[in-house]
Design a protein that fits this description.
Layout: E1 7-15, H1 22-25, H2 45-48, E2 69-74, H3 86-94, E3 98-101, H4 106-114, E4 118-121, H5 124-134, E5 141-145, E6 150-153, E7 156-159, H6 164-172, H7 176-180, H8 184-197
Length: 207
């Protein structure tokens, strides 16, 4: 199970870059771990830290109040590159639960939902408007209402679209394993029958 997502209120951070690939989100050096915890400190590592491991003061997530951001606003094709699932893990571990962009790489987009992260696709003009508001501390607060599919902040309230099945899994906190749990008995019966018939012969050939 994942934490259910219903409402999210907090600071939005602006990252006005296109084609942010998964290696920028989380470099390959941090892929050795199999746990989802602790990766937030490595998020955007090359952009957040210098060669000596010190924070770069000009990077948005190293500044107040954006170091406490729960929403990230970026440009098109966010999450392109390799399919590493560690990338959404690092975002969630940092505290990011929402990403707003004009478009996402397909695999990254799907991985977001599997890890309790809400990717919101908006028109470029709308993304730009929220991005400008997020650049100013006084107007950087953004509220996300998933049940009603709305964003509310300094520029008003705006609706967003999301596939119904994706919305359901986020609201219920279901990942792929949780979705499969109601079918475990059926799966076990199928596997037992298949092994009884023959482990080497496709089941359809025994009917």
């Amino acid at each position: 199970m994942m934490p259910a997502f219903t409402y999210q209120g907090g600071i939005a951070a602006s990252l006005p870059l296109a084609n942010i690939d998964t290696d920028k989100i989380l470099p390959a050096a941090f892929l050795k771990t199999i746990t989802r915890h602790g990766l937030g400190s490595a998020l955007f590592h090359a952009m957040r830290y210098d060669e000596e491991g010190q924070e770069r003061s000009d990077f948005v997530l190293n500044q107040e109040p954006w170091r406490r951001a729960s929403t990230l606003i970026a440009l098109e094709n966010f999450g392109c590159g390799s399919s590493r699932e560690h990338a959404p893990w690092s975002l969630v571990d940092f505290g990011i639960r929402v990403i707003i962009a004009p478009s996402f790489a397909d695999i990254f987009y799907n991985n977001c939902f599997k890890n309790g992260l809400l990717p919101i696709i908006l028109e470029p003009q709308a993304v730009e408007a929220w991005m400008q508001a997020a650049k100013i501390a006084a107007t950087a607060t953004l509220k996300v209402d998933l049940p009603n599919q709305t964003l509310t902040g300094a520029i008003g309230t705006m609706a967003f679209a999301i596939p119904a099945d994706r919305k359901r899994t986020l609201l219920l906190g279901l990942d792929d394993i949780s979705e499969s749990e109601p079918l475990f008995d059926d799966i076990s019966r199928f596997e037992a029958r298949r092994n009884y018939v023959s482990p080497d012969i496709p089941l359809e050939l025994t009917r």
